[in-house]
Amino acid sequence: MKRHILMLLLILALPTGFVQAESEWTITNKHRVIQEASTQTNNVPVGTKVAALAVKTLMGDTLQTQGPVAFVFLATECPVAQRYAVRLNRLHAEFGENQVHFVAVYPNSNESDEAIKTYIAKAGYAFPIVKDATGQLARHLGATMTPQVIVVDADGTLRYRGPIDDNRYEPRVKHHYLKDALAAVVSGGTVPVREAASFGCTLHIAEPSVPEAVTYSAHIAPILQRECQSCHRQGEVAPFSLVDYSDAKAWATEIAEYTKARLMPPWKPAAGYGDFKNERRLTDTEIATISRWVETGAPAGNLDAVPPAPKFPEGWALGEPDWIVEMPVEYEIEPEGEDEYRHFIIPTNFQQDMYVQAVDVQPGNRKTVHHVIAYLDVNGEARQLDAQDEKPGYVTEGTGPGFDDAGTLGGWAPGVTPSVLPEGVGYLLPSGADIVMQVHYYRTGHTERDRSRLGIYFSKTPETAKLHIASAINSEFEIPAGAGWHEVLASRRIKTDSYLLATMPHMHLLGRDMRLVATTPEGNQIDLVWVQDWDFNWQDIYHYREPLFLPEGTQVELVAHFDNSAGNPANPHSPPVPVGWGEKTTDEMCIGFIYYVKASEWAP
């Protein structure tokens, strides 16, 4: 059976900058200072000089700090944070003596002062404790998880953000991120890993209120920088730029309408149904802030105070690849016609199996390239299809590769940065396989040319576990003509203890919603993902913040609904006709892909 994986990846939330204030770190409880700093941004990139912060310690003391500071975000009830008490005390003893100031920050609004004091007495922390009651400090520094550390040097430059190390289990630690960062900061050297993905528990911080006077410079620019400019800038796929005030004011009404409808930024999983990396959603307060800005005439504010523009990656986002491959020839895209899904064959010629930890894509022409997927062919079927097409590569009737693929190496779409699999996990690239690069081309009204390429990053671990891709799938359904809410079910039994790393719902134009739920043999239910407002144009592989352990016998259940009525504006058939499974976009599919690793081969 043909497995069709369409990856239209979404806009990745990118960090923005801070406004510099005082040169030393002064911590008080001046709410106004906190609020003003927080209005500049919800995040800050590593390498930016940050503003002085203002909060009080839990004991009521005003904390004066100079020199490097390690802000450690913790939670009393997070089991991952709890495991780090001994390690944090050890690091504090090593670096705290006249070198680095440690500050523990408890940002969760549901934790009382008494609970925090009781816990820190048990943990034996000898450094200051801050209760970030409003979540302002977390927003200042871009904290998203517990445990998580932000290191700021003596000059006020953010030098490191990420986990303390790479594993909650002490004997399994391979990378001592925080220790290495502190050693570099103290010695004046270069921090070897400036930012790493944190793991643990998400923050439960109170939503800030909407400011009375909303301006572009103080409130709107940081949101657009973080959520929009990765696509809405010159040379990218979005139809217009949002890089300065004149852009934002011109499109203010559309910005308000699309964010209020949650069409932008495009992030489909419903909140509370799966905890994913790189979530791209605005808070209710941010949406209300945008609305108030538009309602009050889109005032500019002090344009000299707009945070520095984010720096987007140039070249390869992950550094120089281990292997670079590109389309065999430059391809010409005609100005008119339907979208084109063209496939280009790239031989690998490796004599042994290889494992790929990450793939980066450099589109040759971002005006016309909508997405790229790297399929694998081990039987030479793609070569036969290529020989039958007069142009370079080949096209198929549907949006799949047209053959029984042996897997995928991932893909790209506008606004996304490459996703790196956990250390010790990789996509299998079989020896002698062909990479079949599917490129989805838009028509722009002009003749375009493209020669896209892939950057391959191989796994460096001696033993690499294969990433498996399975699915809960139903290919035997038929959606009656006129049915407005037709239910289709599917399921998949987990045959061996596994760690689930990611999931991807997939339907076509008639899809309305899809939900995946795992039920363990003990009867525990785990919500994997729920896309409540399906849109064929915005699909993604959703990677979990932490791998989910699914024991043998776990049942993954899929529930999907389709709208085959005349009232569905996406319905390609007028009048509606019965629709079943098929490769064409005008056919339908019902698949819940699951990306997992066998627990016998790998553990986080």
Description:
There is one protein chain. The protein is an alpha+beta fold. The protein has four domains: 25-202, 3-Layer(aba) Sandwich (Glutaredoxin); 216-305, no CATH class; 323-464, Jelly Rolls; 468-598, Jelly Rolls (Sandwich). 16% of the residues lie in helices and 27% in strands. It has eleven helices and 31 strands. Strands 5-4-3-7-8 form a five-stranded mixed β-sheet. A hairpin with a 5-residue loop joins strand 7 and strand 8. Helix 7 (216-227) packs across helix 10 and helix 9 (252-260) runs antiparallel to helix 10 (284-295). The longest helix has 12 residues, at 216-227.
Write the layout of secondary structure elements.
Elements: E1 25-27, H1 31-38, E2 63-65, E3 69-73, H2 79-82, H3 85-95, E4 101-106, H4 113-123, E5 129-131, H5 136-141, E6 145-146, E7 148-152, E8 158-162, H6 177-187, E9 201-202, H7 216-227, H8 245-250, H9 252-260, H10 284-295, E10 323-326, E11 331-333, E12 340-347, E13 354-362, E14 369-377, H11 381-387, E15 394-395, E16 408-412, E17 425-429, E18 434-441, E19 448-450, E20 453-458, E21 465-466, E22 468-473, E23 478-479, E24 486-493, E25 498-506, E26 511-519, E27 525-531, E28 542-550, E29 555-562, E30 579-580, E31 591-598
Parallel strand pairs: 3-4, 4-5, 17-21
Antiparallel strand pairs: 1-2, 3-7, 6-9, 7-8, 10-20, 11-19, 12-15, 12-18, 13-17, 13-20, 14-16, 14-18, 22-31, 23-30, 24-29, 25-28, 25-31, 26-27, 26-29
Helix pairs in contact: 7-10, 9-10
